[in-house]
Amino acid sequence: MTLNPQLKLILDLAPVAVFFIAFKWLGIYTATALLLAATLAILAFTYAMERRIALSPLITAIVVSIFGGLTLWLHDESFIKIKPTLLYLIFSSILATGYIFKKGLLKPLLGVAFQLTDEGWRLLSLRWALFFLFLALLNEYVRRYYSTDVWVDFKVFGCIGMTLLFAVLQTGLIHRYMLPEAPKQDGTVPKSPD
User: Fold this and answer.
1) CA 154 from chain center: how many Å?
2) Dist. CA 177–CA 110, nearest whole Å
3) 133/91 Cα distance (integer angstroms)
4) What stretches of the chain show up as alpha helix (H) in DSSP?
5) Cα–Cα distance measured from residue 69 to residue 153, given in angstroms and rounded to the nearest whole number
6) Residue of 139, 136, 160 whose CA lies nearest to 148
7) pLDDT grade, residue 112 (50/70/90)?
8) Residue 53 DSSP label
9) Neighbours of 74 (CB within 10 A)
10) pTM higher than 0.85, yes or no?
11) Cα distance between residue 85 and residue 57, in whole Å
């Protein structure tokens, strides 16, 4: 069974929402514990429903487990604040490596949503690699020079907002490199809805 995209988006955002609400009411350590629990619960739920785990949520769960665990064990909030930096750097490195070796590594993740030429996938991967590097550097700046309250607001609203905006800004590249639709078995090309 494959989860629908809307449910996947909700599941992707749920741990961040849990973290934000818990932080505002209960503080950073309880929020971190609930973030860890929510991340692992959603990973288990996704596996139970789809019988597979995508690479991105798995990497996220591992990094959250390590840095969330260190935050709780050492009672040091700097670990949970470093977690996004490391996660963004991992994603940036993976996508940049794919670009260097002429592989569009976003294709396995987004290939169901739309079909692009190989060059389109490579360029999209490069753009996301650079964007994740930007987010890593920005997270480091905010975590070092601002309060935990500001960092949490930045992480929840700033990073998610910038990510959504960046995704929308990629539509031009996606349309430029989109493959034509394959003909149906009767030889006609499906019409796009207007």
Assistant:
1) 16
2) 14
3) 8
4) 5-26, 28-50, 55-74, 78-100, 107-110, 118-145, 148-153, 160-169, 171-176
5) 22
6) 139
7) low
8) -
9) 10
10) no
11) 16
